[in-house]
């Protein structure tokens, strides 16, 4: 786990432009207006091509940190691979400032991965790229919202490949990163972790799959050996009703949709994507670029506002 960077308590929170033809700049501008340009002791600043934000907000120049300019004009709802370098450079600039302690946190607007890959970007998403540029061995995606903190152990891989990717050491390492973050970034002194099974009914004691007995249960026992409260493997279909949610502070899920379906069902408009295991604080709204909504003025900023609020809370927790 990477050693956390601690910024000054009044350092800004940086919001990257994301895909310029998507709703990212629009919801960032709306969040800036709703929050009055700051959150607690942290001013908000945009990172990207100034022209993108100029189209969305009339904030002063002091709210802007310019990075690589766009190579192609912005057409609402139509990403251009020629702008890949500008989109990635905004992330690089924000992360570099955070790594120096000159920013308290980074909040990333959504990127359009298909366009970026056509432009030469070789990562499956923000999470994998942030791990690379911060020198982190293992970045972990956490989804926060609706009273849930959910972590997929495997992320952007086909469902047919999930069982082969699950391994006890991966579950243990992911669990350790989550438990540390719950204490350091969420202020939970004695965190409780739940671990989902992979198969229906958590394998039915080996009758519907062997992964629970062979891989997940040994990982749970290894985590418990560290003196923490860990439950599992649990049937995923009974982990998310209210009484069950009250029994844990975060849950490990075995694959992407096992975590994202309950989160988006309970908190679609206010879900936040958090990357754990990095030396910096990074959050993002838990929605995509919504190209079909771009330029129509109807994009909902609640998830971006929630991402900014959570970033500030996590950054402040590191100073307590």
How does this structure look, described?
It contains eleven helices and twelve strands. It is 36% helix and 17% strand. It is globular and about 60 Å long. Strands 1, 2, 3, 4, 5, 6, 7, 8, 9, 10, 11 and 12 form a twelve-stranded mixed β-sheet that branches. It starts with 12 loop residues before the first strand and ends with a helix. Helix 1 (24-34) packs across helix 11 (302-317) and helix 7 runs parallel beside helix 8. Strand 3, helix 2 and strand 4 form a beta-alpha-beta unit. It is α/β, with parallel strands linked by helices and 320 residues long.
Q: How confident is the prediction overall: mean pLDDT?
A: 94
CATH superfamily of the largest domain: Isopropylmalate Dehydrogenase
- Strand tally, please? 12
Q: Tally the helices.
A: 11
What fold name stands as the CATH topology of the largest domain? Isopropylmalate Dehydrogenase
What structural class is derived from the secondary structure elements?
Answer: alpha/beta
The CATH class of the largest domain is Alpha Beta
Query: Approximately how much beta-strand content do the residues carry?
Result: 15-25%
Helix content: 25-40%
Please describe the biggest sheet, giving its number of strands, its sense, and whether it closes into a barrel: 12 strands, mixed
Sketch the topology as an H/E string, one letter per element.
EHEEHEHEHHEEHHEHEHEHEEH
Low-pLDDT windows of residues: none
Supply Rg. 20 Å
Overall CATH architecture of the largest domain: 3-Layer(aba) Sandwich
């Amino acid at each position: 786990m990477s050693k956390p960077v601690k910024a000054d308590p009044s350092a800004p929170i940086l919001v990257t432009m994301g895909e310029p033809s998507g709703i990212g700049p629009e919801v960032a501008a709306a969040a800036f207006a709703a929050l009055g340009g700051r959150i607690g002791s942290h001013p908000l600043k945009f990172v990207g091509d100034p022209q993108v934000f100029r189209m969305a907000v009339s904030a002063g120049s002091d709210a802007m940190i310019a990075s690589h300019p766009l190579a192609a004009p912005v057409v609402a709802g139509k990403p251009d691979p020629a702008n890949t370098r500008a989109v990635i450079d905004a992330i690089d600039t924000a992360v570099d400032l955070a790594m120096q302690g000159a920013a308290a946190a980074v909040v990333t607007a959504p990127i359009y991965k298909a366009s970026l890959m056509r432009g030469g970007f070789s990562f499956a998403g923000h999470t994998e790229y942030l791990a690379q540029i911060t020198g982190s061995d293992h970045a972990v995606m956490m989804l926060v919202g609706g009273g849930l903190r959910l972590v997929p152990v495997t992320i952007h891989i086909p469902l047919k490949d999930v069982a082969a990717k699950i391994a006890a050491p991966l579950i243990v390492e992911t669990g350790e990163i989550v438990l540390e973050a719950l204490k350091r970034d969420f202020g939970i002194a004695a965190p409780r972790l739940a671990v989902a099974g992979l198969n229906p009914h958590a394998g039915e004691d080996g009758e519907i799959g062997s992964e629970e007995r062979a891989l997940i249960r040994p990982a749970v026992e290894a985590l418990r050996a560290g003196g923490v409260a860990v439950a599992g493997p649990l049937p995923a279909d009974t982990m998310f009703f209210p009484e069950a949610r009250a029994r844990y502070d975060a849950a490990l899920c075995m694959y992407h949709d096992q975590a994202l379906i309950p989160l988006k069902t309970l908190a679609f408009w206010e879900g936040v994507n958090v990357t754990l295991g990095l030396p910096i604080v990074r959050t993002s709204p838990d929605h995509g670029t919504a190209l079909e909504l771009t330029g129509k003025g109807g994009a909902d900023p609640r998830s971006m506002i929630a991402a900014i609020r959570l970033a500030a809370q996590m950054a402040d927790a590191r100073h307590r």
